[in-house]
Amino acid sequence: MPDNQRIYFISDLHLGMFPKEKSLRREKLVVQWLDEISTDASELWMLGDMFDYWFEYSKVVPRGFTRFLGKLASLSDQGVKLHLIPGNHDIWVFNYLISEIGLEIHRESLLKTWNNHLFLLGHGDGLHKGDLSYRILQKIFKNRLMQWLYARIHPNGSTAFAQWWSKKSRMKDGAFEEFLGAENEHQIQFARQEIEENKEIEYFIFGHRHIPYDIQIAEKSRVICLGDWIGNFTYGVFDGSEFQLKKYLPDQGSIIKQ
C-alpha cells in the first residue's frame, strides 16, 4: 500500500437504533469522520452492525441512513475500496449495497495481508462453541427458506417488529457491555486458539462486543475490538506498518492504549 494511504476499520454504528434523534446525531458524526478520512483512505472495512436493523426486499430497502449511504457512495466514487462483514444486526444485507455503492461483502471472517502483516478480520460473534442458542438463531437467520418466508411479510410490519424487538432488548440489557477480562472474553480465547495453528497472525480485528480494547496475546499478536459508535466512537487505522485503535474526537485523534 502507498506510504501516504491508510486502511480504516469501524464497527457497530447501529444506525437507526432507538431513539431516532440520537441515531441521527451519531449518523452525522460518522459522516463527518468519513469526510475527514477521505483524504488518505485507500480502504474502509466495516466489521458489522452498521445498521441496527436491515432487510432488503427485492424491490424495497430500509428507509433512512441517507447521509451515511451517500457518503459511502462518494468514497467509492473517488476510489476508496469499501468492504463489509455483516454482523448479527445487518445479516440480511444482500445485493443493494453491492450494486448501488460498489461495496464488497464478505460473509465470513477472513485473512488479509497488507505489507506482510497478517490480519484476521471478522464481526466477532459466535466464536464461543458453547453458545448453542445463539448459533441456532444464526442458522435460522441465514437459512434461505426462512429469509424467503420473512420477505413475504409487508415491510411496514416486519420493520416495526424488528425495531420493537431491538428497543425492548436495549431497554432490558442496555447498549453498553463490560469487559470480562482477557481470560474470559470469547474473542481473545478464540484468538489464542488460532495462533496455535497460525502464529503469523499479527492482528485479530473484531467488533460486536462494543468494548474498545487492544490486548497483546503473543510476542507479535494482538486482539483488537473496535468498540462502537453508540458511546465510544472508536475506530482502527493501519498505516502500513502499525495498527492503532483510536477514539474520534473532532480535530484530534487520541490513541487508546491498554
Please characterize this protein's 3D structure:
The chain has 258 residues and is of the alpha/beta class. It has one domain: Purple Acid Phosphatase, chain A, domain 2, CATH 3.60.21.10. It has helices at 20-37, 66-77, 96-101, 132-142, 144-151, 155-173, 186-197; strands at residues 6-10, 41-46, 81-84, 104-105, 110-114, 117-121, 201-206, 212-218, 221-226, 234-238, 243-249, 252-255. The strands form two sheets. The protein has a seven-stranded mixed beta sheet, with helices on one face. The chain has a five-stranded mixed beta sheet with strand order 5-6-7-9-8, covered by helices on one side. α1 (20-37) runs parallel beside α2.
Structure summarized in a few sentences:
Helix content is 33%, strand content 24%.
Strand percentage: 15-25%
Record field, number of beta strands = 12
Report the helical percentage.
Answer: 25-40%
Largest sheet: 7 strands, mixed
Stretches where pLDDT is under 50 for at least 5 consecutive residues are none
Would you tell me which CATH topology applies?
Purple Acid Phosphatase, chain A, domain 2
What is the count of helical runs?
Answer: 7
Gross morphology: globular
How many individual domains? 1
Which descriptors apply to this entry?
Purple Acid Phosphatase, chain A, domain 2, globular, five-stranded mixed β-sheet, seven-stranded mixed β-sheet, alpha/beta, single chain, 258 residues
